[in-house]
From TrEMBL:
Gene3D superfamilies in the record: NAD(P)-binding Rossmann-like Domain
UniProt catalytic activity: 15-oxo-(5S,6R)-dihydroxy-(7E,9E,11Z)-eicosatrienoate + NADH + H(+) = (5S,6R,15S)-trihydroxy-(7E,9E,11Z)-eicosatrienoate + NAD(+); resolvin D2 + NAD(+) = 16-oxoresolvin D2 + NADH + H(+); resolvin D2 + NAD(+) = 7-oxoresolvin D2 + NADH + H(+); 14-hydroxy-(4Z,7Z,10Z,12E,16Z,19Z)-docosahexaenoate + NAD(+) = 14-oxo-(4Z,7Z,10Z,12E,16Z,19Z)-docosahexaenoate + NADH + H(+)
GO molecular function: 15-hydroxyicosatetraenoate dehydrogenase activity; 15-hydroxyprostaglandin dehydrogenase (NAD+) activity
Family annotation (Pfam families): adh_short
One Gene Ontology CC term in the entry: cytoplasm
Keyword tags: Oxidoreductase
Protein name as catalogued: 15-hydroxyprostaglandin dehydrogenase [NAD(+)]
EC number: 1.1.1.141, 1.1.1.232
Function comment: Catalyzes the NAD-dependent dehydrogenation (oxidation) of a broad array of hydroxylated polyunsaturated fatty acids (mainly eicosanoids and docosanoids, including prostaglandins, lipoxins and resolvins), yielding their corresponding keto (oxo) metabolites. Decreases the levels of the pro-proliferative prostaglandins such as prostaglandin E2 (whose activity is increased in cancer because of an increase in the expression of cyclooxygenase 2) and generates oxo-fatty acid products that can profoundly influence cell function by abrogating pro-inflammatory cytokine expression.
Family, similarity comment: Belongs to the short-chain dehydrogenases/reductases (SDR) family.
Amino acid sequence: MFSGRVAVVTGSAQGLGKVFSGVLLERGSKVCISDVNQSELEKTYKEFKSKYAENVISQQCDVTDSEQLKEVFRKTKDTYGQLDLVVNNAGIVNEKNWQQCIDVNLNGTIRGTMLGMEYMRKDKGGKGGLILNMSSLAGIFPVNYTPAYAASKHGVIGYTRSWSMHPDVVNNGVRLVCLCPAFVDTDMIKMDDDSKFVGTDLAQQVIEKFGIMSTDHIIPVFVNAIEDEENNGSVISITLKGANKIPLPMP
Ligand SMILES: NC(=O)c1ccc[n+]([C@@H]2O[C@H](COP(=O)([O-])OP(=O)(O)OC[C@H]3O[C@@H](n4cnc5c(N)ncnc54)[C@H](O)[C@@H]3O)[C@@H](O)[C@H]2O)c1
Ligand SMILES: CCCCC[C@H](O)CC\C=C/C=C/C=C/[C@@H](O)[C@@H](O)CCCC(=O)O
């Protein structure tokens, strides 16, 4: 299931993207890691390269820049000859610069999804595959201290679910899944920047309610989404209590 498969993971210099890339490499996949943060990307690349040799390549990429993202896909296909998995993981929290928040989280995911479909659809020369989009519990609940972030993550769910129901996509072997974790122990949840939230105290209260998961907590759900080839269109919440498929709300 993993051995010999080829993946693109955005925002993979650190945090969940780095963890996901490590999981794939450990299981024998080939991975193109990419991130806007060149210095952190270089460090992660060196670390992975020493363990996984030619199974890892790296390409700096800001997901708000279509040409840079296209280059990630081009390089991956040129190097490994195929593409089987796209993890649209790059994300930020920034309520002051809410435009950037939407552009990275939602538009970046849309760009990555479109490229993923272009490279993996059977009618376009691909072999089918999985597009795994990172949403959040903030894509399911309203979040009063990060409204733009919540909007971006709600958008990721709507976008992913919509394509997963399109016959041209389903019939050409591409499936799409959304992961929606609560708080995970990465730099994202650090209260280190006033521009992130509109009310750090409000954020703190919700973090206390949900607790903080280790990145390890997310791995089995990530692995299962890849292994379960029947899984298309799922939106999966992940909290300390476990993982649950969120049913479609009916009007
Ligand atoms: N940590 C959490 O509590 C949590 C919970 C739910 C969902 N998520 C989502 O998981 C994903 C990963 O977040 P994380 O917790 O690992 O955060 P993180 O801040 O540790 O990592 C995010 C990575 O994305 C990169 N990035 C930021 N802007 C980018 C851009 N324009 N182009 C390319 N890369 C960019 C960063 O440089 C960083 O390496 C995000 O989509 C986030 O919204 C995180
Ligand atoms: C502060 C860090 C910002 C990063 C956000 C991460 O993506 C994680 C967001 C995770 C969960 C947020 C949930 C918020 C829910 C509340 O606003 C509330 O509505 C939930 C109420 C649920 C209940 O009462 O059962």
